Amino acid sequence: MLDFLDANLRSFKRGESAIYKPLVIYDKNRITTEEMEAGDLLVLIAEGTYTTLLQFADLRDFIDRDYRPTLEARKRRARDRFEPFFVDVLEREHQIISQHKALADMVVSSDLSGVEFRRENQ
């Protein structure tokens, strides 16, 4: 999926008029793609867990929090099974993702109230 995002960013930066984005069809539990016209766009945001690894991103941000603040919302959505194994996976993933903070150009505080810029000229 990161290659897909990076290809879109590269196309956008080259001024190509179309990009392709994932389209999730929840009621059919299916993911497909759709073409989107990008000719008039000035900014393209690639959002996702591992986007700090994208080669063609100009600015990488990191929200400095883990899965715990959103755990109750996840439970309400009832999309995941909350067994000890699942929580262990979330914790391990957090350990991996937290290392991406070092790759970020800006870090958003866990309560979303502040931003730390890590590059000059930002």
Describe this structure in words.
The strands form two sheets. The chain has a three-stranded mixed beta sheet with strand order 3-4-5, with no helix packed on it. A two-stranded antiparallel ribbon has the order 1-2. Strand 1 and strand 2 (30-37) form a beta hairpin. The chain has 122 residues and is of the alpha+beta class. It has helices spanning 2-13, 71-77, 84-98; strands at residues 18-25, 30-37, 61-63, 106-108, 115-117. The protein has two domains: 1-52, no CATH class; 59-122, no CATH class.
Layout of strands and helices, then pairs:
Blueprint: H1 2-13, E1 18-25, E2 30-37, E3 61-63, H2 71-77, H3 84-98, E4 106-108, E5 115-117
Mean pLDDT, all residues:
88
Distance N to C terminus: 28 Å
* Count of strand segments: 5
Describe the sheet with the most strands: 3 strands, mixed
Task: Count every helix, treating DSSP H or I runs of 4 or more residues as helices.
Answer: 3
Order of helices and strands: HEEEHHEE
Spatial ordering of strands, largest sheet: 3-4-5
Please state the structural category: alpha+beta
Residue stretches low in confidence (pLDDT < 50, at least 5 long) are none
Share of helix, binned:
25-40%
**CA gyration radius, whole angstroms:** 17 Å
The coarse silhouette is globular
Give the number of domains: 2
What amount of the residues lies in strands? Answer: 15-25%
